[in-house]
User: What shape does this take?
Amino acid sequence: MATNSKFERLNASRDYIADNYQATLSLSGIAKCSYMSPYHFLRVFKDTYGETPNEFLIRLRVEKAKKMLITENLSVSEICAKVGYISLGSFSSLFLKQVGMAPTLYRRKLWALSTEEYRFPSQAIPACYAHHFLGKLAN
Amino acid sequence: MITSIAHATIYVLNQDEALDFYKNKLGFEVGDDMKVEGGFRWLTVYPKSKSQLQLVLAEPKEGPMFTKDSAEKIRSLIEEGAFGAGVFETENCQKTYEELVAKGVEFIQPPTEQLYGVEAMGIDNSGNWFSLVQR
Assistant: This one.
C-alpha cells in the first residue's frame, strides 16, 4: 500500500481517468497528475488498486456503456463513441471480454427481462437484494 | 470455500445525500448507480483501494420486506445512531481524521490509541456510526 501522500497523488490520477474516460488518454499524461514517471506510476498504481490504469479505464468505460445500453435509446455506435472508443470493433470485443456477451445481445437480453422501458431488470442485481427490495425470486 | 465479501448494506435516509457524503466527503467511488424496474435504485460505493467490497446504500422503504411501520422504525433507528456502518481503514488516522473534519464530517471520538491501533469514530450523514482505524 502506498503511503498517505503517495496515495493522494495516485488518487489524483485515478480521478483524472474517471473524469476524462471519454477522451484519449496517455499513460504519461495520467502519470503527470501523480508527479511520477510513467513506469513508476504504472507499478505503484497496480500495487495500490490491484489493476493497471488501463484496466481501470476499460472497466469504467464498459460500466458506463452497460448503463447507457439499458437506460438510453442510443445506437451501439453512439454509445461506443460516447465512452471514448473510435473503433466499434475494439469496443465490442472489449465489452464481450468483460461482460461475456456482445453489446447488442446484452441490451436485447436485459430489455427482454425488464418489465419497464429503460430500466434494468431485477435479475441484474444480486437475487437477495431483488428479493428483499422488489419481492422477486429468480426463476 | 467462500473467498471474499462482495456487498454489504448500509441503510441510509436519502440515497442522493448519502451518495454525496460517501463520494465527496469520504472519497469513495461509485460502483453501480442503476435504475431497476419497480422503482428501485441499486446504488453502491467502494473505497479507492484493492478492496472488492462494495457498500450498498439503500433506503428502508415500504415494500416486500418492510411494512410502512417497519420502514419508519428503521429510519428512526438510523437517525438515533443505532446502526454501525463498519470499520474503514486508513494509513494515517490522525491525518485522515483532520481531512474529514475539514470537509465537515462529524466525529464523536478523535483518534485514540486502542489495542488494535489508532481509531476515531465518525457518523455518516444518515446517522450510521463508523470507525476509522489505522492498524
